[in-house]
Design goal:
Radius of gyration: 18 Å
Number of strands: 14
CATH superfamily of one domain: CO dehydrogenase flavoprotein, C-terminal domain
Strand content: 15-25%
Structural class: alpha+beta
Order of helices and strands: EHEHEEEHHHHHHEEHEEEEEEEHHH
CATH topology of one domain: Enolase-like, domain 1
Strand order of the largest sheet: 4-5-10-6-7
Number of helices: 12
CATH class of one domain: Alpha Beta
Helix content: 25-40%
Length: about 260
């Protein structure tokens, strides 16, 4: 690990100033600290967000749930508010990594990092959430721009994410056994206006699947999902699975997620 300094501001505004000046934000540290230990990252200066009380917490606001960026996975998983309104989101959080990861990892850190196999980005995208930052509000459809890439600008920090409450929703993932990241994960959500479906782990970045959305908007059943052909052309292929295998997983996980959402 390279030498570095660390700042611990008490407010999001102070943290944003430090980040704008070049300090690297530290949320849960599940990716950043591991990269630093391997000398793959040399931030020089860190700004620790862990002591900023305003960045954590869960509350219901009208027809949405607002979750602070520094809210830990285990807190989301155990939240009575989330379980009562978006149980699929609580279930997703309950199966991220292992207990140690869930005790340290944060919603905002995961979404800002945008790992192509992370779980939370699929929930943000499928639920049509709004990412609230120190500068603005960003619609989920505009937020994820590519592998480990987002619409966040230098010095811009996520403060919270607003999740609209769907009629029903569920998430299913096929885990890579060692990392517990999603080899393929599918989050389905049904709203009065139609269905939204987001896929993680299968491509270079989380993405919505138009074919599944159209089919499920007409008929929210596993059978409707099964009737959609999944194109493997742009999907990942690696030592864990071929693109064709991942395409099959997208279909299977979508069917199972719909069945789970229907109870």
């Amino acid at each position: 690990m390279y030498a570095f300094t660390i700042e611990r501001p008490a407010s999001a505004a102070d943290a944003a100033k430090l980040a704008a000046a070049g300090a690297r934000p530290l949320a849960g540290g599940q990716t950043l600290l591991a990269s630093m230990k391997l000398r793959l990252a040399d931030p020089g200066q860190l700004v620790d967000l862990g002591g900023i009380a305003e960045l954590a917490g869960i509350q219901k606001e009208g027809d949405a749930i607002v979750i602070g960026a520094m809210t830990k996975h285990i807190t989301v998983a155990n939240s009575d508010v989330v379980k009562a309104t978006i149980p699929g989101l609580a279930d997703l959080a309950a199966h991220i990594g292992d207990r140690q990861v869930r005790a340290m990892g944060t919603l905002g850190g995961s979404v800002a990092n945008n790992d192509p196999a992370a779980c939370y980005p699929s929930a943000v995208l499928a639920l049509g959430a709004t990412v609230i930052t120190t500068q603005r509000e960003i619609a989920a459809d505009d937020f994820f721009t590519g592998m480990f890439s987002t619409a966040l600008e230098e010095g811009e920090l996520i403060t919270a994410i607003r999740f609209p409450i769907p009629k029903r929703a569920a998430y299913l993932k096929f885990k890579q056994p060692a990392s517990r990241f999603a080899m393929v994960g599918v989050f389905v959500a049904q709203f009065d206006a139609g269905a939204r479906v987001a896929v993680t782990g299968a491509g270079s970045c989380v993405f919505r699947h138009t074919g599944l959305e159209q089919a499920l908007s007409k008929n929210f059943t596993p059978e409707a999902a099964a009737g959609v052909k999944i194109d493997a052309t742009d999907l990942n292929a690696d030592i864990h699975a071929s693109a064709a295998y991942r395409a099959n997983l997208v279909s299977v996980q979508a069917q199972r997620a719909v069945a789970k959402a229907l109870g």
